[in-house]
Amino acid sequence: MSEFTPRYLKDYQPPLYRIATVNLQIELEDRDTKVTNTMQIERQGEHNKPLKLDGEKLTLLSVSVDGVELSPSAYQLTDSELCIAVDKASFQLTIVNEINPLDNTALEGIYKSGDAFCSQCEAEGFRRISYYLDRPDILATFTTKIIAEKQKYPYLLANGNNIDSGDLDNGYHFVTWHDPYPKPCYLFALVAGDFDLLADSYTTRSGRHVALELFVDKGNLSRAQHAMDSLKKSMQWDEQVFDLEYDLDVYMIVAVDFFNMGAMENKGLNIFNSKYVLADEKSATDDDFFNIEAVIAHEYFHNWTGNRVTCRDWFQLSLKEGLTVFRDQQFSADMHSGAVNRIRNVRLLRSQQFAEDAGPMAHPIRPEKVLEMNNFYTLTVYEKGAEVIRMMHTILGEQGFKDGMALYFQRHDGQAVTCDDFVSAMSDATGVDLSLFKRWYAQSGTPIIDVSDHYDDAHQRYSMTIAQRHPDTADGQPKRDLHIPINVELLVESQVRDKQLLQLTQSEQTFVFEGITSKPVPVLLGNFSAPVKCFYDYSDDDLLDIIVNADDAFNRWDAGQQVFARQIMQLLQEQTHRVPDTVLSALQRILVEDGDNALRAEQLTIPDFQQLADMLPFVNPQHLVGALEQLHLQIAQRLATDFEHRYHTLTSSTFAKDGVAIANRALKNVCLHYLGYTDKGNDICRQQFISADNMTDEIASLHVACVHNLPCKQTMLDEFERKWQNNSLVMDKWFMLQGRQDTDEVINSVKALMQHRLFSLKNPNRARALIGGFSQGNAKHFHRGDGQGYRYLADQIIALNAINPQVASRLITPLIQYKSFSQDHQKLMLAELERIAKLEGLSRDLQEKVNAALQISA
Ligand code: TRP
Ligand code: ZN
Question: Domain residues for 352?
Answer without folding.
Answer: 339-535
